[in-house]
Structure formats: C-alpha cells, structure tokens
Design brief:
The chain is an all-alpha fold. The protein has one domain. It is 64% helix and 0% strand. It contains 10 helices and no strands. The N and C termini lie far apart (96 Å).
C-alpha cells in the first residue's frame, strides 16, 4: 500500500470532509472523552466533591463560550454569521447555568437541545476546515462541552426527563425559533437553519433536502418534536420498569391461613 502523498496529507490538515476519515476519527475521540466523563461522573454520586466538580465544569463552559464568541468576532462582527444565535450557541450558554442553578426548565432544555441538536455536529457537521485551523478545534470543543454538561447532569446529578420537561424544551424551541426567524429575514441570515438566505450563504444539504422554504419549517418542527419524543422514550421505559419493580416489592408477603372448622376442615384436638 502506497503512503499518502504530501499533498494528500496537507489536504487532510486543511480540509474537513463530512463522513471522511478525519470526521470518523474526531467523532470517535469525542465519544471516548464523553464516555470517560460519564464514568468519572458516576463515581461522584453522593461524593462531597461533586458540587466543586460541577462548578468547575460550569465555569469552564461559560468561560469557553465567552472566549469562543470573542475570538469569532475579534476582527469585526458580521451580523449574518457572528451573532451567538444558533441553537448550539444558546445551548452553550444554558449549559453552565443549568448546572449552577439546577433550574428544571434549564436542565430540560439542555438535555433535549444537547442530545437533539448538539449531536448533529457529530453526525452531520457543517465544518469545512481541518486541524490546521483554530476553528476546527473550537467547533469540536464547543459541541463536546455542551454534551459534557448534559451528560454530567444525567450521570452525576441523576436528571431524568419526563413529559413536563418535553413540553418545556419544546416551548423553549418554539420561543427561540419565533425570536430568530424575524432576525434571519431582516439580516438575510440563516441562524437556526430556519432562514431563507441568499445563494452566497448556502443552506446545508440536510436542511435543503427537507423541501423549499418556508414549507420546510413545518417539517423541521415536526422532526424536532419527534426527535425530542425519541429522547424521552428510554426514560419513560426506565420509569415504568422502576414503578413495576417498586410495586412488586411493596406487596405484603403471603402467609398460610390457619385451618378452622369454618373452612370445612377439622382443627387439631387439644
């Protein structure tokens, strides 16, 4: 097997292609890091050090969000691409406050947005540059941090979503979309991928495949609602199993009734 040419190696450092080897490698490393975090967080249950670890993770997430957005707009703000209005931008801000405040609406939104939206960066990333650019590392760190906060909430803090959380997250999504859509139309931007941008701001292929604008907005809403329901389903099954287990163990033990003459059987003579 021939070794890759210098030009091919240079392309691998400068160009990122979705579903290519670099994508698979990077996603695999990110998943391994999240798995390690999950194992670590599990050992923090009931540990006095847990609040300090949670605060450190939240502070890191907030500091990273501020640093990333400052760096992105360091040489000037482009209103069409530089505002932190994407779902993952909002998630990156929600994540630290969800861990610090333990607010149920924030935790619910973090869970569904992290595993419903931030995971799309792993599945179908819009990134185009490779490891030779800071943007490559910033992109993966941002989305992995969001997932890390949501995973920590699940494993270390025991957050378990229910139908109320589903409604909270869906309502948050509708409010966010209703606020973002007029901005998209005004700036001719595509925040949230729900706008109708001009050709110089191409729509991702996965979004374009949902149909023409604005009809695809209905499809996107239905997909979000269905995706959130799928994210809720495992926890509903777990809760149903736990209730059945508790009910089974709460039944009083059966004991044999003493025989009596009323039952048609003779009592032993004394």
């Amino acid at each position: 097997m021939d070794a890759p040419s210098p030009a091919a190696a240079a392309d691998a450092l400068h160009v990122f292609t979705a579903f290519g080897p670099l994508h698979l490698l990077t996603a695999g490393v990110g998943a391994a890091l999240l798995a390690a975090l999950g194992w670590f967080a599990r050992n923090l249950r009931g540990n006095p050090a847990e609040p300090r670890v949670r605060a450190a993770l939240a502070i890191f997430a907030l500091a990273y969000w501020i640093s990333y957005n400052t760096w992105w707009n360091w040489h000037g703000l482009d209103p069409r691409t530089g505002l932190p209005l994407q779902a993952c931008d909002i998630s990156g801000l929600i994540a630290p406050f969800a861990l610090l405040t333990l607010s149920r609406p924030l935790r619910a939104t973090l869970y569904f947005w992290a595993f419903g939206f931030a995971t799309q960066a792993y599945i179908q990333p819009t990134l185009t540059v490779g490891p030779a650019y800071i943007l490559f590392w910033a992109f993966w760190t941002a989305h992995t941090t969001i997932l890390a906060c949501a995973l920590y909430d699940l494993v270390a803090l025991g957050f378990r979503p229910d139908w109320g959380d589903y409604g909270r997250a869906l309502l948050a999504s509708l409010v966010w979309a209703a606020a973002i859509l007029p901005i998209d139309l005004w700036l001719r931007a595509d925040y949230g991928f729900i706008g109708n941008p001009p050709p110089d701001l191409p729509v991702p292929a996965a979004v374009a495949a949902l149909g023409p604008w604005p009809q695809r907005l209905i499809v996107m809403l239905l997909l979000a609602a269905a995706g959130f329901a799928l994210l809720l389903a495992p926890w509903r099954m777990v809760r149903r199993h736990e209730r059945a287990s508790v009910k089974q163990h709460s039944k009083p033990p059966t004991s044999s009734r003493p025989r009596s003459a009323c039952s048609g059987e003779s009592l032993p003579r004394t």
